[in-house]
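Researcher: Here's a chain I'd like modeled. Treat it as a single chain, no partners, no ligands.
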Amino acid sequence: ITMDDGYIYGLPAGERMGTAGIGAAEDFYAGFGFTNWPNDVCNDLVLRSDGTVEFMCVTDQYRQALTYFHDWYAEGLMDVGPLATLNANYVKECLKDDYLLPVEGVCKHEFVFDGLRDKSEHITTLNVAKRLLDHGYHAPTIYFPLLFHESLMIEPTETESKETLDEFIAVMHDIAREARETPDVVRNAPHNTPITHPDDTAAALNPVVTFDALEQTEE
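Model: Modeled as a single isolated chain. Structure tokens:
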């Protein structure tokens, strides 16, 4: 990856202006603060004098993160926020007829529904989230923030296209229709996953988080 401009901005001020600065460095060392990756990876890279980047960490996650920043640099990293905001407002406006929107108005990068608008069949946010699994979607954040009884927080990212947003919107409308017409389909979801309705209380009290522990439970 070449980052000529990044290298230029990493140079001492005097050298950027065409004059030799005191203590001018041939290489610029930078840390972007990525410290949450697995195995506590180091967070340094080196911008060499030829404009190339040498990664001090070789994990795929680290390289993907830097590649993301590099790719957006060409189009303008400042576009990330507005695009995420546009996507969130588009999804919100398309779904608010079927899902209860407690706070009207323009949102930022995320918004919160208070479950389905039609609550006559007592279909919960958890039911909706589990039904999403049948359609291949990981459920959004549910029951947070703790402002509403049936919080469903949706946060589409800036990388989602209108086509993928429209697909998600269509699925959400289908689930709302099912909740009205065939509520048991939603209430008993998911139907297509290896595990459907685990005992949440038992799982919290006796978590099985290793393969050895799983084998012991099966004996």
